[in-house]
Inverse folding.
């Protein structure tokens, strides 16, 4: 293995072969077992797969998924981490866009075509899917060197060591879980516990670091004993802002202060709250492996832009690499933010593309705020479909006649048809993030 982060994990397997490496579904793998499982799978892949082939791995919450990704990488092929449970249409679209040649799921390896797909090859890296908050999910390609930079920064900020037990409740396909919850702990000999659906009581499992989601902590507040998190050294959350009151509830009842991990699929972790005391309302400080600046905005706020080797080289579309940065290498997150006098980063909003029609444009928030003012509307999301139509999806129990009256008030003002859909709920990720991709496909 010539890839530094993978070589580091390999060396750790040799140093502490009998130490616990991964626990998932009640089964413990030692570092010796992890090394053997990676080696066996790498040998099988080397015989079955074409060189440099993109290989999609379905990331079920099992140790085998981790071993499969590392084995694919060891053979010089490019793993594409696919979340378990994707709708069939989305999975097929992702495989086609990425140019994947093989599909690995629960020990089975299936070829996706006899001939090598047209397009580029992507040695020396991995692919992960964007969340789909603003549109369809896209495979983003990052190099192992860049991932190694991120892991080193995470280790330095969190002071992770082999004495830590790290609980991961997020999907292994996501950057947050795979980089901070798998690669970083395994590189120093820590014990990783994968439990997305039924996270154990940290006080009984001896957990020192939690990589959770807002939903993780909300569930714990409801069912864990008082002070159950008091012995946890670092309790992280990512994926979406904390609901109002959750930080205070967790601190008062469970004895822990939730800290934020902020990042994107394209960049990995950008900022992390690891100070001597938590900094609520912020996402911590920017990690040193990245340059970060505030771009266009108002006042002391601006769009968060980052640059560095850890940033994805681009999105893979039709087997080709399409850059995700500007000409100077800056990745534009679309997140608005500001910095505090002591250097903490605060997220203040999300930049959104205007709705366009008939030579005019409008901020989608204008339509959403008008509908939210109607009786019975609980949530409202405005978006523009591929054919230019504007649709606002609402939840709640608003009367249809009130919604139709609002539609008539906008007739002709934007230059494109406007409609309102009523739904019982909006599609969200496990972290609570709105997934517009499923609204666009409906």
């Amino acid at each position: 293995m010539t890839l530094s982060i993978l070589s580091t994990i390999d060396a750790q397997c040799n140093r502490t072969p009998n130490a616990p490496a991964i626990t998932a579904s009640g089964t413990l793998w030692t570092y010796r077992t992890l090394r053997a499982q990676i080696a066996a799978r790498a040998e099988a892949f080397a015989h079955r797969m074409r060189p440099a082939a993109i290989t999609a791995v379905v990331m079920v919450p099992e140790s085998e998924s981790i071993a499969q990704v590392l084995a694919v990488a060891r053979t010089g092929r490019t793993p594409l981490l696919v979340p378990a449970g994707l709708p069939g249409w989305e999975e097929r679209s992702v495989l086609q866009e990425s140019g994947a040649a093989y599909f690995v799921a629960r020990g089975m390896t299936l070829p996706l075509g006899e001939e090598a797909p047209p397009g580029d090859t992507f040695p020396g890296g991995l692919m992960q899917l964007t969340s789909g908050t603003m549109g369809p999910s896209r495979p983003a390609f990052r190099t192992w060197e860049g991932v190694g930079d991120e892991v080193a920064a995470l280790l330095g900020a969190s002071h992770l060591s082999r004495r830590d037990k790290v609980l991961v409740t997020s999907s292994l396909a996501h950057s947050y879980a795979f980089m901070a919850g798998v690669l970083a702990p395994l590189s120093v000999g820590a014990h990783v516990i994968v439990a997305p659906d039924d996270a154990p009581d940290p006080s009984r499992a001896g957990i020192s670091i939690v990589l959770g989601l807002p939903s993780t902590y909300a569930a714990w507040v409801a069912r864990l004993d008082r002070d159950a998190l008091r012995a946890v050294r670092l309790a992280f959350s990512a994926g979406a802002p904390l609901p109002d009151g959750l930080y205070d509830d967790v601190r008062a009842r469970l004895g822990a202060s939730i800290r934020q991990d902020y990042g994107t699929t394209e960049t990995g972790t950008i900022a992390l709250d690891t100070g001597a005391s938590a900094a609520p309302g912020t996402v911590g400080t920017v990690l040193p492996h990245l340059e970060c600046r505030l771009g266009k905005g108002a006042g002391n706020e601006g769009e968060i832009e980052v640059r560095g080797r850890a940033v994805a080289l681009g999105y893979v579309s039709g087997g080709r690499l399409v850059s995700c940065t500007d000409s100077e290498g800056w990745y534009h997150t679309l997140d608005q933010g500001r910095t505090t006098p002591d250097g903490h980063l605060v997220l203040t909003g999300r930049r959104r593309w205007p709705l366009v029609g008939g030579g005019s444009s409008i901020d989608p928030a204008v339509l959403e705020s008008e509908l939210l003012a109607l009786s019975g509307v609980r949530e409202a999301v405005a978006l523009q479909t591929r054919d230019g139509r504007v649709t606002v999806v609402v939840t709640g129990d608003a009367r249809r006649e009130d919604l139709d009256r609002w539609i008539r008030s906008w007739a002709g003002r934007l230059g494109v048809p406007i409609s309102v859909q009523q739904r019982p709920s909006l599609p969200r990720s496990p972290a609570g993030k709105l997934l517009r991709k499923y609204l666009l496909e409906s």
In short: The mean pLDDT is 90. The first strand starts at residue 20 and ends at 24.
